[in-house]
Design a protein that fits this description.
The protein has 474 residues and is of the alpha/beta class. The protein is built from 16 helices and 14 strands. This is Tryptophanase.
Length: 474
């Protein structure tokens, strides 16, 4: 039975600032129509990311007061280390200040130029850190992941046959490790099954290739396994997680997601040589191995968050809250990626705005319109984030999926907030023909979506003024 209300009480509140449409128009122009460049105070409902935006619990806040800020050997590190080992079972635990730092120190230690790193689907910083090593980041998710209407229960699964073909083609020596991202963020927050992980692990053991998890949303993935995979309905999520991690050789994590903290990450590995190489590089760029770029108080909050995230009442409400938003949008006719994922609802921008071709950045245009009309900030996951063009003369390559992600921070918004989001998106959908495309005027060579700048086509500004509140059909 789903919990009919939030499984927590609110002790501290933060006021929401309401801005006018005219002010939002001005801010968009100043920001070059890039929502990353907006001041957060100008955003009413912020669904840009679920990374680092969670509300911490009273236990976590209490833990901050127990921070041991010793440079080496902080007691909070040992609590954190024990929590990670209990969860993952790997021998060595290395803290970092966030996930991309874990990616950096791992790939700096083991990825060489000319290698390739397969994944079910790389997210932005993972791909960039691999390519920064002059290696290739390969997406080998099952083909159904690219069909937004397909409702497979585990659309994040690795295509094991394609993975084997790649290993045979390039040779095992050119594959330093294989990653599985749980859940698959780039593909709509879709989970990966234990059966698929087991098949991948079995294949890689034949070739002597390590299997790693990008585990930033591991708890949500494990809850989906409990819900959807035969044989796991009565298995506690903690045991599912231990079974999952036991099939791999290590993991990296941005703990700003399922660690329920505002900053933090880690690497955990079994291989002593890898651990030594990672630690040596960590000292250069992050700090001493018992703090890894974090304060002792942050390590304590993280240790407690890794325990809290396994609470099944919390997870049940978390997944159902995301599902609630997705079902409201679908009921209002809005095209979304199905099935609804664990941490976000993904709007299918190509179907939402069929009059805009990908070179006009429909997902970015949709995200801009949603902010301008209603003060809601989402994020583009499409041609801005994953499209490529190395030179002005080269034809651009576009991704198969063109999405706007509405990522829901953990324990932050109530269902009333999400009902407002749904009403706004449905209202925008009913006036979608007024939304204009964008022209990119600046794009960095890597991770361009963070700093890109745009102009609206022909300097045209939509004349649609959002109503703000609409009664959805029952």
């Amino acid at each position: 039975m789903n919990c009919p209300y939030e499984p927590y009480r609110i002790k501290v509140v933060e006021p929401i600032t309401f801005t006018s449409r005219e002010e939002r128009c001005r801010l968009l122009h100043e920001a070059g129509f890039n929502l990353f460049q907006l001041p957060a105070e100008s955003v009413a409902i912020d669904l840009l990311t679920d990374s680092g935006t969670s509300a911490m619990s009273d236990s976590q806040w209490a833990g901050l007061m127990l921070g041991d800020e010793s440079y080496a050997g902080s007691k909070n590190f040992y609590h954190f280390e024990a929590a990670v080992r209990s969860l993952c079972g790997y021998r060595y635990v290395v803290p970092t200040h966030q996930g991309r730092a874990a990616e950096h120190v791992l790939f700096a230690a083991v990825v060489k130029p000319g290698m390739c790193v397969p994944n079910n689907m790389h997210f932005d910083t993972t791909r960039a850190n691999i390519e920064h090593r002059d290696a290739e980041a390969l997406d080998l998710v099952i083909k159904e992941a690219y069909d937004p209407h397909c409702e497979l229960p585990f659309k994040g699964n690795m295509d094991v046959d394609r993975l084997e073909a790649i290993i045979e083609r390039v040779g095992p020596d050119r594959v330093p490790l294989v990653l599985i991202t749980i859940t698959n963020n780039s593909g709509g927050g879709q989970p990966v099954s234990i059966a698929n992980i087991r098949a991948t692990s079995r294949l890689l053991k034949r070739y002597g290739i390590p299997l790693f998890f990008d585990a930033c949303r591991f708890a949500e993935n494990c809850f989906f396994i409990k819900e959807r995979e035969p044989g796991y309905a009565d298995v506690p999520v903690r045991e599912i997680a231990r079974s999952l991690f036991s099939l791999g050789d290590g993991c990296l994590m941005s703990a700003k997601k399922d660690g329920l903290v505002n900053i933090g990450g880690f690497l955990s590995v079994n291989d002593e040589r890898w651990a030594r190489a990672i630690t040596n590089h960590l000292i250069l760029v992050e700090g001493f191995p018992t703090y890894g770029g974090l304060a002792g108080r942050d390590l304590e909050a993280l240790a407690r968050g890794l325990e809290e995230v396994l609470d099944e009442d919390y997870l049940r409400f978390r997944i159902s809250q995301v599902r609630y938003l997705g079902e409201l949008l679908a009921r209002g006719g809005v095209p979304i990626l199905k099935p609804i994922g664990g941490h976000a609802v993904y709007i299918n921008a190509r179907e939402f705005l069929p009059h805009l071709q990908q070179h006009r950045f429909p997902a970015q245009a949709l995200a801009v319109a949603l902010y301008r009309e209603y003060g809601i900030r989402g994020v583009e996951i499409g041609s801005v984030m994953f499209g490529t063009r190395d030179s002005p003369a080269e034809e651009a390559a576009y991704p198969e999926l063109e999405l706007v992600r509405l990522a829901i921070p953990r324990r932050v918004y109530t269902n009333s907030h999400l009902a407002y989001v749904a009403e706004s998106v449905v209202d925008l959908f009913q006036h979608r023909d007024a939304i204009r495309g964008l022209v990119m005027t600046y794009g960095a060579p890597q991770l361009r979506h963070f700093t890109a700048r745009f102009e609206e086509e022909s300097s045209a500004v939509t004349q649609f003024h959002g109503a703000g509140v609409v009664t959805l059909p029952q």
